[in-house]
Amino acid sequence: MDTETILRIKPALTQYLHEFDGCMGRVTNRRHLETYVGGQLSDLQRKSIEPIADAAGQPPRTLQQFLGLLRWDEAAVRDRLQRRVARRHAHPHSVGIIDETSFAKQGKHTACVQRQWCGSRGKKDNCVVSVHLGYVAGDFHTLIDGDLFLPEKTWHGNRTRCRTAGIPDDIVYRAKWKIALEQVQRALGNGLRFSWLTFDEGYGGKPPFLRGLDSLGQNYVAEIPVSFVVWTKPPEVVYREHARDRQRGRPRKLPRLKVRNTPACEVRQVLAHSPKLRRVPWTRYHVKDGEKGPMVWEAKCIPVWIKDENGLPVGPYRLLITRNVLKPEEVKFFLSNAPEGVPVETLLLVAFSRWRIERLFEDSKDELGMDHFEVRRYLSIQRHLILTCVSHLFLAEFRLDHGGKKRRRDDRPTADGHKGTGPLVGSGWAVLPESSGNGRRAIDVNATAQRRRPPLPPQANDPAFRGDGCLPQGHTPLSLVKKVA
Predict the structure, then answer these.
(1) For helices 207-215 and 176-189, what crossing angle results, to 10°?
(2) Are the CB atoms for 423 and 461 separated by under 8 Å?
(3) Which residue, among 338, 305, 132, 309, has the nearest Cα to 207 in the 3D structure?
(4) Element (H or E) spanning 315, and its range?
């Protein structure tokens, strides 16, 4: 970081951190906040407590106490951060991205550590896992929440070990999808609005999580595992018994599926055997330009119905199946609660925007030292995650205001795939619908009413986007979002 950049950052950082004065309590805590965030934004090779304190000319113990002992409200810091994002970066085409990341750690005393899948090393290893929520609005993206995942067997069931690591008794095991749902609810409560949410199959494969988003009226495009079960045709439901059936032994639970019904099947079986899907042609889309050239995927979409908490059908939902043109064996399945009028291009745009959360993790670890923490207690790690969000938001805003490229209107893509960058999230014309909400409902008029919100207004496919099947040479360009350096 050169001298000119430092001179520009210092007053901007001081003004930015005043946003959180009310959460710090004492004046000394405000100074520690500036020291810690300034250290994360610096060019230190290692951004743990000791190097940050040494560079600031402070005893390392003072920052250790700031993270673990001194009284300040980290939850209020997170809330103020989210309200700032809602106030300054609201966007009609915003996308929320849910994902988890891991931090490799040695030993067994760090809070929440255990041998589990470690994404940073690509194998099972000793690590700490945290669940995060990212926010994307055009050229802007930032982390807005992060929570440690408390393993069930090795930690939740051993409260003595939890107390030793500083884990309060009210912090108990929660499945990762429950943590993610709470993060979405918090963000909505702080004024943030997502046109869409997207996440991988680790969350998309959890029907209770999808039902929770439905109840919030939140649109999503979820990657789902190949074993996810759906109906391509809604089965019939019995809501009351016939008179002759009431006299035959113990009454059965109602409502229930009729005995003679087509069973639900896994989505991989839908791809292999469904006549309904077979009648829909594959259409090619230029998803984005990657480092090794353009990424072209084929896609087809049909309505499906899924099981509710009682095993009854609810829908319709949208099942989106995509396959890589260069690697046809690479197939991805997505489920969306978007209304039928939303074009396939929009669903693909959201589904393939998850790379932004990987970029957020990369920036947070490489530039801000999110994985450099050497503290062990639960509160210290949790505060470190929140402060990393604070540092990342400043970095994202400063980059947008001073270091980003000027925005320009992107050319609308042509049907034959000739030059044109395609629509961006937040480009001049609306690719993503401006209003959110969904129209999920249980089938049959006699079914129990579920919470409903107005569906998205139908959108006709733009002629420039519409494909005419699987053409040998042509495909429909669909550029996603520009990377922010």
Answers:
(1) 10
(2) no
(3) 309
(4) strand 313-324
Residue 124 has pLDDT above 70, yes or no: yes
Query: What tens digit of pLDDT does each residue of 7-27 get?
Result: 778 889 999 999 999 999 899
CA distance 54 to 46: 11
Task: Give me 355's structure tokens.
Answer: 């790379």
DSSP state of 444: S
- pTM reported for the whole predicted model: 0.82
List pLDDT tens digits, range 75-92.
999 999 999 999 999 999
Cα three-residue angle 323-336-355, rounded to 5 degrees: 60
Give the separation between CA 456 and CA 439, rounded to whole angstroms: 8
Using DSSP, how many helices (H) and how many strands (E) does the chain show?
16, 16
Q: For the chain, what is the mean pLDDT? A: 82
Query: Per-residue pLDDT averaged across 241-252, rounded?
Result: 56
How many residues are listed for the chain in this entry? 485
- Burial level of 184, CB count in 10 A (0-12/13-18/19+)? buried
Q: In the chain, pLDDT over 70 holds for what percent of residues?
A: 78
Q: Are 313 and 235 in contact (CB under 8 A)?
A: yes
